[in-house]
Amino acid sequence: xxxxxxxxxxxxxxxxxxxxxxxRNIGPWAGRxxxxxxxxxxxxxxxxxxxxxxxxxQAA
Length: 60
Fold this sequence. Notes:
With about 60 residues, the protein is of the alpha+beta class. The protein has one domain. It has two helices and two strands; from the N terminus they run αββα. It has a two-stranded antiparallel ribbon. The termini are far apart.
């Protein structure tokens, strides 16, 4: 079992005029949101979980 918050986060979706976008919330809710974008064929699971944990901890 993973100890990273990202691995336990639920994938959520939002519909846009151009298709469906997936996202996950990690870190404190009171912090400033950080939006990370991937290239054309990237997915949420391509991000390094250790990197995301550091970002989430510093977003507060």
